[in-house]
Design a protein that fits this description.
heterodimer; A: alpha+beta; DNA polymerase, domain 1; 2 domains; 5-stranded mixed beta sheet; B: Uridine Diphospho-n-acetylenolpyruvylglucosamine Reductase, domain 2; Uridine Diphospho-n-acetylenolpyruvylglucosamine Reductase, domain 3; Enolase-like, domain 1; 5-stranded antiparallel beta sheet; 4-stranded antiparallel beta sheet; 33% helix; 25% strand; globular; Diverse_Oxidoreductases (chain A); metal-binding (chain A); Beta-grasp_dom_sf (chain A); iron (chain A); 2Fe-2S (chain A)
Chain lengths: 170, 287
């Protein structure tokens, strides 16, 4: 099988690696880029654990071939915080509310919540539900997840992290 | 994932040539949200994927009251749902798009992929059939424009020939006094295939129904029209008694099967319920 050299910008950093045509972006991120924060749950687009932002839009990394992402800008869970000691308001709020049980769904939910809050920092419960409808938590921690997202949204609105300048289309 | 060769041609001629020369194991890759699942779950034997994303002219949306709607093969469900004017002009298609899978999937899945997959439960097909949409195709022997209602020949099958590529969908502009709705019924709201989907598009003049188109999803081998139920509505003021009898007629015109998602009897019952509700929804908007 021939390999294609893939050039990506992952979390603001240019990355380059060779991938076979049948490999998913998820496998490339985890195994070639070493970014194992993005989880492989179902591998068929149902669970949302592998959610990443590709060119401004949240997608399931298992549902795209790595070669299709040639030249793309990707944000994974590793890119959520500005620096190792500087937690994103979502991470802080998830810790405070105990919104993570086994933690497997958490990276995907954080990415999806970031996408939601950046354009809508004060969402209604229905908007959170709609925004997270492609992310499954099997520890049934949704109540705490919702609490954490509301808290993070308020802080993001106060600190200007959810300005129209950062608004992204659904 | 099972291994396959990936091809990314730059023109429709090359896509068609590859599909023809590579034979039965070659498939078009657009969004991939259905195809990649089928490959992983070994439902489809794929030796070659022909990605059409580098082919120019397959993206773009035009949507206006005067021109109607046109979108290309690379238009994703998320992109179309977010397009200005779509929710106002085609609320039936908008509701179908928002009910399709999840935000993440909609950002990859193409509408024409959903159509060409030719699943009887595909959400986008009933509203487009009810609105008289056409599908444009390209083949070295010539381009075609096919009414969407005549496109499907069975579950997973269409009139597309080997090497023929669906390039765009067009929908006529909504006429003044016309109203449309699509209702999806499933066990849950997201990440769900329709148990039954009903689209109703009605034209009215001075409170009288002048034309009716009912399209029923997931209750037959293809998305079905219900011509006798439609005929019952035409010429009436859409009073509750007429609507109920048309809904009962639609139940007689569908041909559901039992499967993992529902029994045939339940599907038939829901065709009645949803047809009535869809007409009611249309009347509420019209009022």
């Amino acid at each position: 099988m021939t390999k294609t050299v893939l050039d990506l910008v992952v979390n603001g950093e240019s990355r380059s690696f060779a991938v076979e045509g049948h490999r998913s972006l998820l496998d490339a991120l985890r195994e070639e880029a070493g970014l194992t924060g993005t989880k492989k749950g179902c591998d068929v687009g149902d669970c949302g654990a592998c959610t990443v932002i590709l060119d401004g839009k949240p997608i399931n990394a298992c549902m795209i071939l790595a070669v299709e992402a040639q030249g793309a800008q990707i944000t994974t869970i590793e890119g959520l915080q500005a620096s190792p000691d500087d937690l994103h308001p979502l991470q802080q709020a998830f810790m405070e509310h105990g919104a993570s049980q086994c933690g497997f769904c958490t990276p995907g939910i954080l990415i999806m919540a970031k996408h939601l809050l950046e354009s809508n920092p004060l969402p209604t419960d229905e908007e959170i539900r709609f925004g997270l409808s492609g992310n499954i938590c099997r520890c049934t921690g949704y109540t705490k997840i919702f609490d954490a997202i509301r808290t993070a949204g308020k802080r993001m609105a106060e600190t200007g992290m959810a300005l129209p300048a950062t608004k992204v289309e659904a | 994932m099972r291994r396959f060769e990936y091809h990314a041609p730059n023109s429709l001629e090359e896509v068609s040539g590859l599909l023809t020369s590579l034979g039965d194991g070659a498939f078009i890759l657009a969004g991939g949200t259905d195809l990649l699942v089928e490959i992983r779950e070994r439902l489809r034997t794929v030796k070659h994927l022909v990605d059409i994303k580098k082919v120019p002219g397959l993206s773009g949306i035009t949507c206006s009251a005067a021109q109607g709607l046109r979108f290309g093969a690379m238009t994703t469900a998320g992109e179309l749902a977010a397009h200005p004017g779509l929710a106002q002009l085609y609320p039936n298609l908008y509701d179908a798009l928002c009910a399709l899978a999840s935000i993440q999937v909609r950002n990859r899945a193409t509408v024409i992929g959903n159509i060409c997959r030719a699943s009887p439960s595909a959400d986008t097909i009933p509203p487009l059939v009810a609105d008289g949409a056409s599908i444009e195709t390209w083949h070295p022997d010539g381009a075609r424009i096919i009414p969407l209602a005549e496109f499907f020949t069975g579950p997973g099958r269409s009139v597309l020939r080997a090497g023929e590529i669906a390039t765009a969908i067009t929908v006529p502009p909504p006429q003044p006094g016309s109203y449309r709705a699509y209702i999806k019924h499933g066990r849950r709201k997201a990440m769900e295939l329709a148990t039954v989907g009903v689209a109703v598009s009605l034209d009215t003049k001075d409170g009288i129904c002048t034309a009716a188109r009912i399209a029923l999803g997931a209750v037959g081998p293809v998305v079905l029209r219900a011509p006798q139920a439609e005929a019952l509505l035409v010429g009436t003021r859409l009073d509750p008694k007429t609507v109920t009898s048309a809904a009962q007629q639609a139940m007689l015109e569908c041909t559901p099967i039992s499967n993992v998602r529902s029994s045939a009897d339940y599907r038939r019952e829901m065709v009645g319920v949803l047809t009535r509700r869809a007409v009611q929804q249309v009347l509420e908007v019209a009022a």
